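We modelled the chain as a single entity of 134 amino acids. Its sequence is:
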Amino acid sequence: MGLALLGTALALPQYRLQAIKQFHYKGSTLKKSTMPCTFCHVKDTGGDPWNAFGENLRKTFHENLDKSIAEAIYLVLEKDLDSDEDGYSDVLEVYAHTLPGNPESKPTAHVEALKTDFAAAGGLKQYQPAEKKK
């Protein structure tokens, strides 16, 4: 039983590690405070079920099996969706370090001010996979 739980906990860490790197989040990759499981999952322990942002990621991964994890993450952000329907697009929530799948977690800045800051910081291009930057 313990091995099964360990397998579940370690099953997909590459997605979380890639997102932390790609989103330029600071902090230890070992700490959930850097990027909690609830970034994509409903429960803070991860696993089923996924929140709306996590579901968008899952769908994109399944539809783009030929893409790297980094490319699939970028494709989701490029869609400019508001997965949790809180008035902030997923990419703006990534930029603001809030949870794009949780409507209770949203940036404190107004949308237009955040869009201006995001554009000044490099916009969507700052999340482009390293292998695609030229």
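As a brief sanity check on the tokenised model: DSSP finds six helices and no strands in the chain. The two ends are 47 Å apart (CA to CA).
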